[in-house]
Design a protein that fits this description.
mainly alpha; about 75% helix
Length: about 350
């Protein structure tokens, strides 16, 4: 087993789920005990929720996952079966939950696809393309939100959150543009550039990795070249659907408690785009802790006494749910892909 596979398997270790759970719970407890406005009564507000609307949240969550499953199957030209596509998405979500947001489980996703009989070059292409498409949603959506809301999507402490946003947005944009240039235009030039950059004395130790990444970009470029227009339309539409559903999930949770107006829904949706860009620079696994704090900062003025219970519900559906489901699915998937035929015992 190569080094890449070993690292991927270590990441998929169920014990990895312990760290983000501890971080997330610790932050929630810290917020609970340090904010005098948060009491046990805030937790009891769960019983005031409209359960039919909460059920709608689960339907939105299910629709989002269907979008992910459809996209990965379409990306692979249906070489993945529906069952394999489900495994890939759930394990990818698990890997994202146990790795820092800036990493995102990319190497694990490539490993999973390869174990589902997708060749190395194609697996790299699909994972890189997925990252580019997801990032483009933020890159295009965030400026539109800022323009139409005149910057009012930032909560109190404007300077702090706006600084986080602009740093994260700049990094995401630079990374995505470089990947687009490398994959769709000049992969060989980009490999040469990486080689030259790592020629400097203090960067030479990363030369082998740089050359390897350059080769991977060339493989990805070759795989994606010449795709039909219908292919791009399908995966771009699926990406827009996935992220829109992801944000509408929180809108439905909030609607179960507070009944916001149409204008409020638009504002809540807009703030999520900005908040998600901020969360992408989180150094913690699955943005654990960072997400809870960001949520409080962005939505406290909207949610008031409901802030804690909605925060918990949101993280339960978007984070802890996939940690638990990933652990269950992981055992079955490992049994499936690593299953070996029993060798008959030698006659004595």
């Amino acid at each position: 087993m190569d080094n890449r596979s070993e690292k991927a398997l270590k990441t998929l270790n169920p014990n990895k789920a312990i760290i983000p759970v501890v971080i997330g719970l610790a932050i929630v407890l810290y917020l609970f005990f340090t904010d005098p406005d948060l009491t046990v009564d805030n937790l009891k507000l769960i019983f005031k929720a409209s359960f039919p609307v909460l059920l709608l949240s689960f339907l939105v969550l299910f629709a989002r996952d269907l979008g992910y499953i459809y996209r990965i199957r379409t990306l692979t030209n249906k070489d993945l079966t529906w069952k394999s596509s489900i495994y890939v998405i759930l394990l990818w979500e698990f890997a994202s939950a146990v790795t820092p947001s800036v990493v995102g489980g990319t190497a694990v996703a490539i490993f999973i696809l390869m174990k589902e009989n997708i060749k190395f070059g194609r697996a790299i292409a699909y994972v890189i393309l997925t990252a580019i498409l997801d990032n483009l949603y933020f890159i295009i959506g965030a400026p539109l939100v800022l323009f139409f809301t005149d910057g009012e999507v930032f909560p109190g402490y404007y300077g702090k959150w706006s600084t986080f946003f602009y740093i994260s947005y700049s990094l995401i944009t630079i990374y995505t543009l470089l990947m687009c240039f490398a994959v769709f235009f000049k992969p060989r030039f980009f490999k040469w550039l990486l080689y030259k950059i790592t020629s400097f004395k203090y960067l030479k130790k990363w030369r082998n990795e740089a050359v390897e990444q350059g080769d991977e970009l060339i493989l990805a470029s070759q795989e994606l070249r010449g795709k039909a227009v219908s292919y791009w339309v399908k995966i771009i539409t699926a990406t827009a659907f996935i992220w829109t559903a992801r944000y509408l999930l929180l809108n439905t949770i909030i609607a179960a408690f507070t009944g916001p107006s149409i204008t409020d829904h638009i504002s809540l949706f807009s703030r999520q785009i900005i908040m998600w860009v901020v969360m992408l620079i989180s150094p913690t696994p699955g943005a654990a802790g960072f997400a809870e704090v960001s949520f409080g900062g962005f939505f406290e003025d909207y949610l008031g006494e409901y802030i804690l219970i909605i925060n918990i519900c949101w993280r339960m559906l978007t984070f802890y749910f996939y940690l638990i489901l990933g652990i269950v699915v992981l055992r079955k998937w490992i049994s499936k892909v690593f299953k070996q035929k029993k060798q008959p015992s030698a006659a004595s």
